[in-house]
Each structure stands twice: as structure tokens, then as C-alpha cells.
Amino acid sequence: MTDDQLIGLKIHNEKINRVTTESLRTALFSLMKNMDYRSIRITDICKKAGVSRTAFYRNFLSKDDLLELSLIHI
Hints:
This protein is an all-alpha fold and 74 residues long. It has helices at 3-34, 42-49, 53-59, 63-72.
């Protein structure tokens, strides 16, 4: 791969991570409107966001980590 291709791939991956992260944040807050936070599972968040658990764990360590980082970015 050329340097330009590597840069393009890096930019593409960063965009995907931003979309994934935003989808997970939105899903968590949506679920919290109708469910107690303690009862929300990672699977619920991923299903609502339309992403895999692998994608979740690529970006966050736990549900608490997602919540904490989401609140920082509000």
C-alpha cells in the first residue's frame, strides 16, 4: 500500500469509529428513557445501535465506560 492509501484507510476507519460511537451513545440514551440503567445489557445497546459486540468493545470497556465518555462529550 502506498502512503496515500494508508492515510485514506486511517481516515476511513476513524469515520467508522465515530459513527459507531455515536450510534452506541444514542442507543444507550434511548434505552435509558424506558429502562433502568442497571437492567440495560451490552447486547441491548448493540442491538439498538445496529452494531456488533466486537464493535462495542473496540470502543468501550463497559457500559459504564460508554456512559461516562458520553456524558463528557455532551
